[in-house]
UniProtKB/TrEMBL annotation:
SUPFAM superfamilies: Thioredoxin-like (SSF52833). PROSITE patterns: THIOREDOXIN_2. This is Thioredoxin peroxidase. The keyword Cell cycle does not apply.
């Protein structure tokens, strides 16, 4: 598994469904560079079970992300037509109707490969035939990308394990606190709690008070 933290987020151009209803060709994260942070996350398959709970959870907190100047973008290896059909399926039928943030279609699987979350790989057998080993879908990868386009946090879960949106927001708060205050955020830090200077004195002061 590649560690992308500290590196430029891999670029791509693909079709996405935006605002729950429009196809946008050549969608790219480059549009956010210099303007917004990005939470870019992957899910395995449309029309499944854990996936809609996560996507809906992000939508329910979308105002909190926007208040922090963060764009939320999702991606799977399904086509934009599958995304569109899922977006037009009511929640009580397993759909994600009402989702407004962009959903990217990684049908070539190159985005998942470049972010190193594809649960399998292509190779050739002894007959020289192209084969795929593993699952042709993405793990539950999540990447927090800063305004310069650099990955600052990544998390990859196996397919049965849903993510915690609250933790994503906590990491955004920690990054923005560090950028604004120059203080580092200790274990279990939350917005409004004491942070500390990255010095021996700062650590000693924090530990003595907590």
């Amino acid at each position: 598994m590649a560690v992308l933290v500290g590196k430029k987020a891999p670029s791509f151009s693909a079709t996405a469904v935006v605002n729950g209803e429009e196809f946008e060709e050549n969608f790219s994260l480059e549009q956010y560079v210099g303007k917004q942070y990005v939470v870019f996350f992957f899910w395995p398959f449309d029309f499944t079970f854990v996936c809609p709970t996560e996507i809906i959870a992000f939508q329910e907190r979308l105002a909190d992300f926007e208040a922090r100047n963060v764009a939320v973008v999702g991606c799977s290896t399904d086509s934009h037509f599958a995304h569109f059909a899922w977006l037009n399926t009511p929640k009580e039928q397993g759909g994600i109707q009402g989702i407004t943030f962009p959903l990217v279609a990684d049908t070539s699987k190159t985005i998942s490969t470049n972010y190193d979350v594809l649960a399998g790989s292509y190779s050739y057998n002894e007959a020289g035939e192209l084969i795929f080993t593993g699952e042709p879908a993405a793990y539950r990868g999540l990447f927090l990308i800063d305004k310069e386009g650099v990955v600052r946090h990544q998390l990859v879960n196996d397919m049965p394990l849903g993510r915690n949106v609250e933790e994503v927001i906590r990491m955004i708060d920690a990054l923005q606190h560090f950028e604004e205050k120059g203080e580092v955020c200790p274990a279990n830090w939350e917005q409004g709690k004491e942070a500390m200077l990255a010095t021996p004195e700062g650590v000693a002061s924090y530990l003595s008070n907590n």
